[in-house]
From TrEMBL:
Protein's recorded name: Alpha/beta hydrolase
Annotated transmembrane regions: none
Keyword set, alphabetical order: Hydrolase
Residues annotated as domain AB hydrolase-1: 4-225
Gene Ontology molecular functions: hydrolase activity
Biological source species: Actinotalea lenta
Gene3D superfamilies linked to this entry: alpha/beta hydrolase
SUPFAM superfamilies: alpha/beta-Hydrolases
Keyword Lipid metabolism applies: no
Amino acid sequence: MTHVILVPGFWLNGDSWATVTTALEAAGYHVEALTLPGKESRTADRSAVRLADHVAAVVERIDAAPERVVLVGHSGGGSIISGAADARPDKVERAIYVDTGPFGDGAVINDELPVESDDVPFPGWDAFEEPELVDMTPQVRQRFEEIAIPEPAGVARDPQHVSDDRRFAVPSTVIACSMTSVVLETLMADDHPYMRELAAMQDRSIVDLPTGHWPQLTKPAELAAEIVGIVEGRGAAGQVALG
């Protein structure tokens, strides 16, 4: 049975994957949607939580899995699953990056977001560009605001640490939402710093899923279908092979 570990991005916990989880389980997968340290509640103590703690939480679940795993990371969760793939390259069957990508050594997820004490609170919708907000209806925005949890500042600002070259052999797919595959290919061709890690992957691809930055909320059924297609090697409309 395919074992899928879902890692949320900033301000979200495992419950944000609920509809995707149900669809993947219906497809016969064993699914873990993680709530990472400091994200248990709005009142959780986040003062000592670092990026390494989030990576370690994913590695712990990889080690507990009875077989190789598929890692799915959304947004800031992309850095977390790439760190976990670096730590356990032989146990990761595939890494799937949802509107994000793997970060190389020394990269920071986002050190520009405002920090309040030890937290990075949700900054409000004005902080995002229009492509990120596609399909974010008033109802979806309200739901997001109801479940949003501050991000630990250490996770947002700590540098990524990866060092095992075997990570480049882990098959990697980007599900491109707010930025299309064409844009991402152009950035790679231009040697954009944030695309170098993906460009170095030996088996990489991009699948377009046109929507905003939070497809697990705006198009969860379509996102689940893309994940299944990627895992089962069926491909999808809009897939661009890069490796």
